[in-house]
Every structure is written in C-alpha cells, then in structure tokens.
What does this fold into?
Amino acid sequence: MTEKTILENINSPEDIKKLTSSELEKLAGEIREKIVETVAQNGGHLASNLGVVELTIAIHTVFDTPKDKIVWDVGHQCYAHKMLTGRCSRIDTIRTENGLSGFPKRSESEYDCFDTGHSSTSISAALGIACGESMKKSDAYTIAVIGDGALSGGLAYEGLNNAGRSGKNLIVILNDNKMSISNNVGSMARSLSRMRIRPGYLRAKTKVHRLERVPVVGRPITSGMKHVKDWMRDEFFGQKNNLFEQFGFAYYGPYDGHNITQLQEALSAAKRKRSPVLIHVCTKKGKGYGYAENDPKSFHGVSAFDVETGEPRSGGEGYSSIFGRTMCELASKEKRLCAITAAMSIGTGLSAFSKKYKDRFYDVGIAEEHAITFASGLAANGMLPVFAVYSTFLQRGYDQILHDAALQKLHVVLCIDRAGIVGEDGETHQGIYDVAFLRTIPNVTVYSPSSFRELEAALRKAIFDTEGVAAVRYPRGGELFLPEDYEFSGKPFSIYGSEDAKILIVTYGREFSQACIAKERLSEQGIEVCILKLNTILPLPIGTLMKAKHFESVYFFEEGVRNGGLGEYFGFCLYQTGFAGRFSFVGLRGCVLQAKTEDALHKAGLDAKMIETKIKNDVTRGGKADALKKKTGSDGV
It folds into this structure.
C-alpha cells in the first residue's frame, strides 16, 4: 500500500500547524506538483499559483482562519489556499463544470470570504471586512494578498489611502514577483525595485522583529531601537518614509517569499502590531516548474499542456493573433497609429507590435480607466489610439468611455477581445455585458466580425473610416464553421439565404456560425430560414428593420445579456415599424457559470442544436394550431 503524502492528510489549516519546518517544506513541494498536474489537465493560472505556495502555507500557520479572513487580489493564485482548506480531494475538478472555481468563491467554502476575479480590489474589500469585524467587537485579523501587478491599479491606492490610518487589524501582504502578466511598468515598479535591492536592510530588520519575541525585555528594547530602525531606513532607502508608510501603514520587508520560517516571523510580528501593516515579500513567479520560471508571461494563464515538454495540447491561430498581425501591418503605413494595453500585451496579441513599434506602444499597467482617458488624450492630439482589452475588463472603464471619449466625439478605437462566453474562467470573466453597456453611450459604433477576414476589415474600418468611439468585438479562440457559399460583403449587414423564407434569424459575431449550422439542418427537414447577419451592431444598420418586417417569424439569437442587449432593442424597434409577426429573442439571463464554452452555449439555447430545436418546435406547434383553427374555426385557445 502506498503511503499517503503529507498533502493527502491535510483537511484544514489546523493540520498544517502540527507540521515541523521540514515537513512544511515537503508539503510545499507536494502542492507544487499537484498544481502543475492539475493545470496541465484543466488549464488555468499556473505561474502565479506556483509563486505563492510558501506564502500561503505561512499565512495559514500563523492566522486562525476562517475567523481571520484572507482576501486574495484577483484570486488567480488561490489554488494552494484551496488545497489547504479542505478542498484538495476536489482540486482536479477546478475550472470544470460543477467543479471548484479557479477563483475564490464565498459559496464554495467558509475560508473564501470574498469573491474576486478582477484586479486591485483586495485592499478596499479587506478594509470593509476589517471595519465590520471592529463593529462586531471581534479581534479577528483581515489579510489582503495583493501582487505588485495589481498595485498598478488605481483602486488599490484608494484602498491604501483609506486603510492606512484606520487603526484596524488589517494586514496587506504585497506579493512582489516583479510582474503582473506582462512585465510591470511605471513608477511603482521602479520604487519596489529599489526596495528589493537592499538585502542588508532586510537582514537587519528581521533581527529587530525577532527581538520583539524576547520575554519581558523584548518590547522595550525594540521600542528604544526605533531611532535605529529610522536610521536604517534612511541609510538604505535614502528617504524618510516609503510610500506605504506615508499612507499610514507600518512597513515590514522585503522578505524572502519562499522562506516559510522568515514569513512566519514577519506575519507574527504584524499580528502583534494590531494596526495596519504592509508586509513586502519577494517571490518568483512560476517557482518549481522550469518552463514557468523561464517564461512566466506565457505560463501565467494556460490551456491544457504537456508537463514534460511544456507545450500546449491544442493550438492554432486565434482572433487575438490576427488582430496583432493586422495592427502591425497597419502601423507600417500609418505613423499616427498607436496601441495601448493594460498589462495584457501577450493576451491581446500585441507582443510583436510592442517590439516592432516601441515608440507607439503603451502598456499602462492594470489601469483600464486610465487607458481609456489616456487614449482620449492621444486622440485629442491627432493620434489614432487603439486600446486592446478583454471585454470583462472594459467594464471598469464605462465612465471614461462616456465622459472622456464619447461625449467629446474623440476617435478612440476599442478592440474588445474575449467577447461573449469564455467558458471555464467563470462568472467574473465572461464577455457578455459590453454590448448592453455600450448601447447606452452616444457616438459609439460597434463592429462584430464572424471570421478572421471580417476582423481585418472591421479593424481597418474602425480605425480609418469611423468617427467618434469605434469598437471591434471578437471572441476567444479561432474561427468556427462558415458555409462555403457565404461571402462577406463588407456592408453593415449581410443576408444569407432566401428572403422568400417565412422565418428570419437575426444574429451577429460568433453566433452566426451556430445559426448557419442550424439553417442547414432545418433545410434538410423542409424548413427554410433566412439569416440577417449584423456586421455593424451599433447603431443598427439602416434597412435591417425593413428587411425583417416582411417575415412571418423573426428570431434573434444573442451571445450576450438579454437585459439591455441588442436583441431587446431590435425587437422594440421592429414592432415600431408595424411588424405583425412573431418575434422571439434568445439571450443570456444574468451570469454564465463555469463550463466549457460549447456547454454554456447549449444550456443558454444558443448552439446550433438548440436553435434548430426551438425553430422546429415552434413550426410544429404553429402547424398544429393552424390545423386546429381550420377544423374548429377558432384560434385553438
């Protein structure tokens, strides 16, 4: 019988508190092996999770969770936390339907106190929780774990500004791995870099913290040494206070984020402070898996891969790479064209552009709001700015799109990647809201291509032939099925099929592929349908409503939210034309749960099979109703 590993015997944080230092080191190795094995199978966040293993162990040995609460910023580094809090036996289900989430989930465990998924929220949330604990007269601690990448987001500074002088039992752990997804940029990154290169300060400050533990005399000695610590800081940093101390935090660090004993000592010292403390730890992203250590950018978020080679199990060109290549082609001819990313140069396909056109490439860090206003400034000065951003992150910049770009009619181009359902990343990352919120903003034109060729055409049109804010939205992954006889006209809308049919399907983007498959299947059963494909979705192209008005039944299928979505608006406008037929709208109701994209589409009634079934059933019911009407002379009700 094979002896159980240490990890297999861990059912709660209480179990790891019984382990020796050497056993904790072994546990860290076992956790890393399990993370690599799991992500290789299911995909997910690899490098970030490998980098925080020792830190996670140290937190759970020093604090009393779930009484003490941990808020993980973004949450993409929570796999070790899940393993140590009773979920190790289910870790192989992570990011699968009905399995563990790839992010913290309050509904999943009492050890997850706050749902996260987007960056820079942890300090604000943790402060709110800490104030709540104070109001309940609780002595519990609240810990926010935030990466240096997330610290480039403005919300983090709003939280720091409010938290530093709150006097609450709040500990902020800055996990400094020198990067977010792409390399960190900006003044904060340079400031942290200066802090990291002072090992003498680290060693001396660690010894001071150890003195505090000496019975009776420890506290008086360390109190008397405060002026020595101030001297150390001035000597090593050349400044009276660092930024965090100016915010009102006691600053401890930097510490070796892979030394469990040192981390435990720092965390214990922070507990004794009983007021806001920031602990600065330095970790290596991807630690323990060579491929991830050497290329943490590529191994930040990955699809399933081969552990031995590090190679992905599936590949092929996707919309992001087509976008990046087209941008390079256009930039070679237009000197005013520039690209902006919010720490996502690889994910959005801009790696080649960033190298080839360095003087026209701007990585602003995890700061979508700033990116949009920055782009507006570029546009106001005659440049052609293109901001490439995931749909789920564009949500953070609503006010900037409205106030800084659209109302001024500035020509800012938004390239919205990951539009629509994205699958296993779960509710926080689905790109299903952008159409609904962009529909509320004036002076916005939105293109929704259904193929690589259409993406190239839409990008050119958005950059060179559109006034005001222009957006091009495209899905994650590659092209889907398109009929051989379909030809892209380049016009705002396309008609595919006979306009003599009684049934019309209206759709856009990736959903067009599903509609085409359903059309073929229905035709084989003697049910003819026509498809009205919207290439420009905002504003509604002139003529589409008049085309739709003459059909007996109109179906709108939308891979986006129903409330405020395009289908809802199309139906309203259609009935205003005097349309007397039947209008049916299928869209997404609220959030989309974690599942493969194809399964999520099926459950929502948006895949080819469900489109076919819905129309076929309606035709069948309509036929029966007509027969009953002829027989009884009534409408059958």
The domain at 493-629 is CATH 3.40.50.920 (Rossmann fold).
